[in-house]
Design brief:
615 residues; mainly beta; Jelly Rolls; ten-stranded mixed β-sheet
Length: 615
């Protein structure tokens, strides 16, 4: 069925009812619209707003085998032009949206719209009762405005009461109403009208419809009771009264079931006039808020930008405020932040005097009054600059590095921090009148080092630190010199080896190796003194030329090294020669021959003398 092609039905208003606001059900009694006749209901509607329009009642028999009544509905705009018509078969409800596929009617113009209900003479055999209803539909989590006017001379006027419908499956909701100071509200009421998941009401075009009797103040349990009377029926836990003009009103409700529910909201004024604002709130989640690169310090007398990112995927972001204080929130200023693009917002803290302490907060508000806060704090001080240069970048242990640089803090005491694994050295140096400084340091550990210059700051100037500069300390080069004295010794005499481990390395172990003429060797250990010297005394009983060499094995600071080869000679003394073969045999043989000769001589010559005496 199309709603665009117009039938040849001239617009003759005939019998009609002018309904001064889209909020009141119109009861069509049985026989009121006879077969072939029509009745027109005229409503003042506003362009762009959504209205839920439906006609139902006894005449609807979607499952009936022989429905009797066939009401067709024609819609005319304020210029009396036909904008749509709806001619379902007998017993079936008309779809009165802007198109047959849409549940709501959105007027293109503001003015009086006419809804002509015609009892089709060709297809209808009855004139059953019906209800025709037009009510503005509002969306959840969106603010709406409504002009309200209290009774005039104790008589209700058009804007004394108003009503809206909304649909939500949220189990928690709040009706938030901002009342101007010029208006005193009588009541706000919330009515549950349909919940198809609970078998209450029905569905048409994908949205719930209330049971017809609920529109006429009838109830079933917690459902129905809709009316705009003052006083009138209300559910005590779903109403709020305005005690005085301008009082904020709020209804909080928690459904005990799941599924889409149709609600009617009734607003009734008592005294005064004004535009109130209302909201059906189901979004209770605050926006996501974060500060982007928040400053730790502000430059004196200079405005500083504060940026924040705010996102709300439910109701959307309303606005952001930047609040700042210099006296711990005793007083503060609030500054609206400007949206740069997408979710990025920016505000400015004004220039402040040096030495000021600042606290600030960014507040993000979504469209339904949820908010998030991100806090920050900073000082207001002049920045400090420091440079640092080291030379050389590579050195050996025992050598020195020179650190130079400059700062804008003239004449201040600076800290020069040298760091390597397991060791930190903090030295101080004064910057001169031009801000230049220099420091010389001799590292005591091999490895990768870094050095930084820093200043601790004061009440008006920030502490400062230079970038770290790296340098490398390598193992030192050592050397050993030895002197052998004497270079010639006799067997079992001592030779002394005196040496020096350079550069004057103390308390190091040195190994002295003595290699004999037959290739045998002996290793001896010596420890260097404070000047790097060491001494060893060696005694041997082996004759010949000996070789001597001293070796340092190296340590965590110095590379290993060895001395040049030294020599000494071991010889026998004259006595040692004579008392050893072959001289020993000569010494032993000479006296023995003399004794033997003496004995032979005595024996021989003594015998001859004895013979002479006998004769």
């Amino acid at each position: 069925m199309s709603v665009h092609a117009a039938p040849s039905v001239p617009y003759g208003v005939g019998k009609y009812t002018y309904v001064n606001k889209p909020a009141l059900p119109q009861n069509i009694t049985k026989g009121q619209i006879s077969i072939g006749s029509n009745w027109t209901y005229i409503y003042p509607l506003e362009a762009g707003k959504s209205y839920h329009i439906y006609c139902y009642g006894d005449w609807i028999q979607p499952n009936g085998t022989n429905p009797q009544t066939d009401y067709d509905i024609y819609v005319f705009d304020p210029d009396h032009k036909l904008v749509s018509y709806h001619t379902e078969a007998a017993g079936l409800p008309e779809h009165l949206g802007t198109t047959v596929d849409e549940p709501y009617f959105v007027p293109a113009k503001t003015g009086d719209y006419s809804f002509q209900i015609k009892n089709d003479p060709r297809e209808s055999n009855g004139s059953d009762a019906a209800t025709f209803m037009v009510i503005e539909h509002v969306e959840i989590n969106r603010w709406y405005s409504r002009f309200m006017e209290g009774e005039v001379n104790d008589v209700e006027v058009r804007n004394t009461s108003w009503a809206y419908e909304f649909i939500t499956s949220a189990q928690k909701l709040s009706i938030c109403i901002r009342v101007p100071d010029t208006l005193d509200m009588y009541e706000a009421r919330l009515y549950l009208m349909a919940s198809p998941s609970q078998a209450i009401g029905t569905m048409l075009n994908g949205v719930p419809l209330p049971e017809e009797r609920f529109l006429y103040n009838f109830t079933t349990g917690n459902y129905g009771g809709y009316n705009l009377d003052q006083p009138g029926f209300r559910f005590p836990d779903r109403m709020v009264s305005c005690e005085y003009a301008g009082k904020y009103m709020e209804i909080n409700f928690n459904a005990t079931y799941e599924g889409e529910t149709l609600y009617h909201l009734a607003l009734i004024a008592e005294n005064g006039t004004g535009n109130l604002q209302f909201l059906v709130k189901t979004d209770f989640n605050p926006p996501t808020l974060s500060l982007l690169n928040p400053p730790a310090n502000l430059i004196p007398n200079t405005a500083t930008k504060i940026q924040a990112e705010a996102v709300d995927n439910e109701s959307g972001i309303s606005h952001l405020l930047l609040n700042c204080t210099t006296n711990n929130w005793t007083t503060y200023i609030s500054i609206g932040m400007v949206r740069l693009f997408s979710s990025l917002y920016e505000g400015q803290i004004p220039g402040l005097a040096a030495g000021t302490s600042v606290k600030y907060s960014v507040q993000a508000f979504d469209l339904v009054d949820n908010s998030a806060v991100a806090n920050g704090s900073c000082t207001v001080k002049y920045p400090t600059t420091l440079t640092c240069v080291v030379s050389p970048s590579t050195l050996q242990i025992g050598q020195s590095v020179t650190v130079t640089g400059s700062t804008n803090r003239l004449g201040r005491l600076l800290h020069i921090l040298y760091k390597t694994t397991g060791k930190t050295v903090d030295r101080t140096v004064d910057a001169n009148a031009t801000g230049f400084y220099t420091d010389t340091y001799t590292p005591t550990v091999v490895g990768a080092w870094s050095v930084q210059a820093s200043w601790s700051g004061n009440a008006t100037c920030l502490a400062g630190v230079s970038s770290a500069v790296n340098f490398t300390v390598q193992l030192g080069v050592s050397s050993i010199d030895i002197i052998i004295s004497p270079e010639n010794i006799e067997l079992w005499q001592s030779v002394t080896v005196n040496g020096f481990l350079n550069p004057s390395l103390s308390n190091r172990h040195v190994t002295i190796t003595y290699i004999g003429p037959d290739g045998s060797f002996e290793e001896r250990s010596a420890t260097t003194k404070s000047d790097g010297s060491f001494t060893d005394t060696f005694t041997t009983g082996k004759e010949g030329q000996w070789t001597v060499q001293a070796v340092f094995s190296g340590d965590s600071l110095y590379k290993p090294c060895s001395s040049t080869t030294g020599y000494f000679t071991v010889s026998k003394s004259i006595l040692q020669l004579l008392t050893s073969p072959p001289y020993l045999y000569l010494l032993i043989g000479g006296p023995a021959a003399a004794v033997a000769g003496f004995l032979l001589y005595r024996r021989y010559f003594a015998g001859e003398e004895e013979e002479e005496e006998e004769e």
